[in-house]
Amino acid sequence: MTRKQRTAAVVGGGIGGLATALSLRKSGWTVDVFERARRFPTAGTALGLWPTALGALDALGVGAQVRSLSRPQTSGAFLRPDGGRIATLDIEAMKRRTGEAGRLISRPDLLSLLQEAAGEVTFGERIEDLGALNGSYDVVIAADGLNSAARTALFGPRHRARYVGASSWRGTVDGEIGSITETWGEGRRFGITPSSGGRTNWFACAVVPEGQREPGREAATLREWFGHWHTGVRDIVDRLTESEVLRLDLYYLDPPLPSYVRGRTVLIGDAAHAMTPDLGRGACEALVDAVELTRALTATPDVPSALRAYDRARRPQTQRLVRTARLMNRMAHARRLPGLRNAAMRTAMAVGGALG
């Protein structure tokens, strides 16, 4: 007797949604992906892929392609505004532990690769009724991001994205650097990472009121705040143009969800465990979610049982990362006793084996 092909609906066509569609389709599922945007973004800054994410991409069958489009992280450091060193990232220690260093890839490149591998996506489709999908598919995967409508529908408005107290600015400039630096001041920080095509990614964060904006003056404000920092930062802010500065407030999910599952619906990625970007793990964990969800659904034919197993495997780990990222955010934006904060940072990183 031929086994009935199983079906899945994926709500959200971002990194987690596309990875899940690819993973399930490789396992013989019929998958429909619904993305509310009309197209994927064609511009964007780089994101980091830690070894666990690269392992997930290998499981998806696109690891080699990702490595060809990305560049390895070769060095990195946390600095003071005067350029003094707080701590150094020990990339060789990471290689010894995991077999590979992290890599950097542009978000549009990763999205494009995943879409090409995953196949068809229905764009411009906003799903308003999860119940209707539940009646038509064996499983519904909600990958609809930070402000997930699915999460609100399943668990109510109490579990929502909350402002962390800081805003971020980001973009790219011409010119290439080889190392990653993150510079910590009092309530402000500035990060620099290599990009592709001879360009450099940068980001800045500052403690400001939620929703505050400086129309037409964002670049000028960044120069006022960071123009007196060390040469590496000054070199970036001196080249900023207003049109290329993207500003976003920072949020995390709080309180944490009691489960990532309701019946035959499961939340993944930011919909389940949105975290501040301080660990660089948001996209990475969405990729791991996709692979682990497929493993659970493949191992157990009963969908509710498989989803419960997935929840047990992923929720404790990802919620721990949310807490750690929030703590890192507080440390990075501390306005008092920066020397004590920097010493605590060195100790914490050294205990984790990430520093040389």
Automatic annotation (TrEMBL):
Domain FAD-binding, residue spans: 8-324
Protein known as: FAD-dependent oxidoreductase
Keywords, ordered alphabetically: Monooxygenase, Oxidoreductase
Keyword Oxidoreductase (UniProt): yes
Record bears the keyword Iron-sulfur: no
Domain of life: Bacteria
GO molecular function, one term: FAD binding
One Pfam family linked to the record: FAD_binding_3
